[in-house]
Amino acid sequence: MSKTIEKYKKGIRKEEIRNARKKTKKKKKKTSRKPRRKDWDINSHDTWDENDYLDEERILPRGENERRRNFETQAFDETLLSPKLASAMERNSDQAALVVEVSSGLCRVEIDGKTLVCTLRGNLQTHETGYSNLIAVGDRVIISQDGDEKGVIEEVLPRRSVLARTHGKILSLQQIVVANVDQVLIVASWREPHIWPKLIDRYLIAAQRNNLKAIICINKIDLIEDQKEFAEIAQPYTKLGYRTVLASTITGEGIEELRSLLKQSTTVLAGLSGVGKSSLLTTVQPSLDLKTGSVAEKGLFRGQGKHTTTQSSLWKLENGGIVIDTPGIRDFGLVGVKQSELANWYPEMRTFSEQCRYADCAHLNEPDCAIKNAVKNSDISPVRYKNYLAIRETLKP
């Protein structure tokens, strides 16, 4: 089997399912039944029995459905590859491009060592995906060329992974931050702006839900003054087994470790504005020479970073890695997580939650709550528990 077929085989199941749906589209009848959602629990071994549902029912919210199908494509067996689809992929192999930057209505793609500015084919904009954006940096797309420097995106190839967040107040709609990455480098600075553990936890949960490796990088450690305070925040993550890199572009500490972690992987850098994502990348590979800036000195977001990076951009490293630098954000809304499920996404809470008196314990003020007792006994970090409470308030019951 050729490398081209290997490259796209993970998306075939989704393609075949989509084609099957097109054939039966005219046979579907209108229904007044509300869409049902199958509750997925990371501790459950239940399987998806399609016989339990009607053909016309939408089982999951569209974005959540695609997240589940991304997992399916990762486990797809090449023996299921149909000759018809394999032939189609071979014909399109010379048109496959990588999206390296996205702007309003346009994007830049890389193909055969050159860069093209592309527009979107009109029919793409009518597809219901559950996402607010049709194209994201990291997407693999099929294009038709219109001259040497312009093209049109005809199709978005199936994604093997996405990192997405809620789209403003429309909780049912998601915004894809990046697509087709292997790992998330969560960058936080100790000071300027102050480290924000709650945002770190949000990224960790999103990474778990999308089967992405998570790495925490605490930057600007040269500004640490109180080692005890630093330990209270950083140690809970290292004890849980999260790879934590302590870095400084001033002293050079942690840069070589970062360079090694970024090698031969596709990594998205995520975090607040001003934490030093672009500075770290430029230190890892000076030839990138990315634009950097300082934190705001006045206004509503005083002490927080300015949006120096205005849009996500993909860069190829000399050591074979690919990095995607994203604009700093001040919030990262979790999608597909309910209040009752949140504790399951905190590894240290899972075991204790089974020991609570009530099966539906919210771990707030209930009697005999094993998680609250664990916090008192320092078996669970008070910082992490505080993050749990704050994040829970933002979720649906």
Secondary-structure blueprint:
Blueprint: H1 3-8, H2 12-24, H3 62-74, H4 83-92, E1 96-103, E2 106-111, E3 114-120, E4 140-145, E5 150-156, E6 162-167, E7 170-179, E8 183-189, H5 197-209, E9 213-219, H6 227-239, E10 243-246, H7 255-261, E11 266-270, H8 277-284, E12 313-316, E13 322-325, H9 347-353, H10 370-376, H11 382-392
Parallel strand pairs: 3-5, 8-9, 8-11, 9-10, 11-13
Antiparallel strand pairs: 1-2, 1-4, 2-3, 4-5, 6-7, 12-13
Helix pairs in contact: 5-11
Protein described:
The chain has 397 residues and is of the alpha/beta class. It has three domains: 163 residues, Nucleic acid-binding proteins (OB fold (Dihydrolipoamide Acetyltransferase, E2P), Beta Barrel), CATH 2.40.50.140; 145 residues, P-loop containing nucleotide triphosphate hydrolases (Rossmann fold); 54 residues, Ribonucleotide Reductase Protein R1, domain 1. Helix content is 27%, strand content 20%. It contains eleven helices and 13 strands. The protein has a six-stranded mixed β-sheet, sandwiched between helices. Strands 1-2-3-5-4 form a five-stranded mixed barrel. It has a two-stranded antiparallel sheet with strand order 6-7. The relative contact order is 0.10. The N terminus is likely disordered.
